[in-house]
Amino acid sequence: MASSSAFAEPTLEVKVSSEQINALDSIWISGKITDVSEFKPVKLRIIGPDGALVFAPQLAIGDNGEFKKLLNHPIPSFKAGTYLITASHEDSEVTASTQFTVIAQAIPRNEIPNTTQEKTIERKVPMATNGITLIADAVNGSDVIAITGNTSLRGSDITLIVNSPMGNLMTIAQVTPGINGNFEVEIKTGGPMWKEDGMYTITANQGTSSEIKKSIQVEIKDGVVVPEFGVIASLVLAISIISIIIVSSKSKLAIPTRF
Questions:
Q1: How far apart are CA 116 and CA 119, in angstroms?
Q2: Nearest-5° angle of CA 188, CA 194, CA 200?
Q3: pLDDT of 112 higher than 70
Q4: Model confidence, pTM
Q5: Across the chain, which distance is largest between two alpha carbons, in Å?
Q6: How many helices (H) does the chain have, and how many strands (E)?
Q7: What count of Cα atoms within 13 Å lies in the side-chain half-sphere of residue 103?
Q8: Which residues does 218 contact at the CB level (< 8 Å), separation at least 6?
Q9: Which residues contact 233 (CB under 8 A, 6 or more apart)?
Q10: What is each CA distance from 182 to 42, 45, 149, 158, 194, in whole angstroms?
Q11: In this predicted model, what pLDDT tens digit does every residue of 11-36 receive, in sequence order?
């Protein structure tokens, strides 16, 4: 008879979309992790050719333990040389690593290089002078919350954490700010996890130790969004109806009685 441990050892793997890129290119970093808490992110460290830490993003774990990150070049470009990527997780002592090589490339004059065009945000977001600004936008009854914002720290990713009214962790999302500090991400609600009614807190964290933090609240009922103006709209409707009744009553009193 053979016996085996009831607890599987965590596994972790990380890879890149290309082993060699130009200095103005972007590169996909992806991987998979098993037997760890999916509510805790995978931590990446990207070390440059000079041994300095270039990026330290934290990636949310998706379906089947997969994680993915599009790494854009820093301003003005990647330095030529070999970059080392290491991945780790809080619940595991296992680490994984890979690397890619950057080839030097001339930077065009009078142009700010950006291989990935920043997505235009229709809603105007105030510029953050020292921190993060957040705006939550959703249609009444929708199961999607559109989060837009701006950050003064543009060199690191933003992690968004959603907590229920009772403080339970609902979901984690991650977004990379654009060249102007703007960012946009959609959070989907609904399902058995979102059955609690009330104010849900969305917190944006940025920096290796969450030096920058900002929170907003969104009301959710029966798994869908209740806009902030929902109560006001109801009051306006009620006042309008009462006004119509009063005006109608006065009009009847003004009609002369015929004998």
A1: 9
A2: 80
A3: no
A4: 0.44
A5: 111
A6: 1, 17
A7: 6
A8: 136, 138, 145, 199, 200, 202, 225
A9: none
A10: 24, 23, 6, 11, 28
A11: 999 999 999 999 989 999 999 999 99
